[in-house]
Fold this protein.
Amino acid sequence: MEVGKLGSLEKSSNEHGRTSNGREQKLMPDKKQADRRTRQAQEVEASQKRLRESIATTSRLVEESDKMLRRHRKERGDDEAEG
């Protein structure tokens, strides 16, 4: 029986490609693995780009809101001074 480690997880398989729990082990060819890694990297980058755009939009909206609140407070203060 062969034992392989992935981080702190251990997985064992026998000569028939079955794991210790009896399920068939599916080994991906190198090309499929490379394609999958490439696709996942692209998906992660796209997700990070959307996240950065969302953060930028949120920051812009917070700044605009702060400016509006300051302007309203100033206008309110001017109105109270007149009245």
Remarks:
- Residues 30-82 form the longest helix (53 residues).
- Residues 2-82 form one domain.
- The beta strands are 2-6, 9-13.
- The chain is about 65% helix and 10% strand.
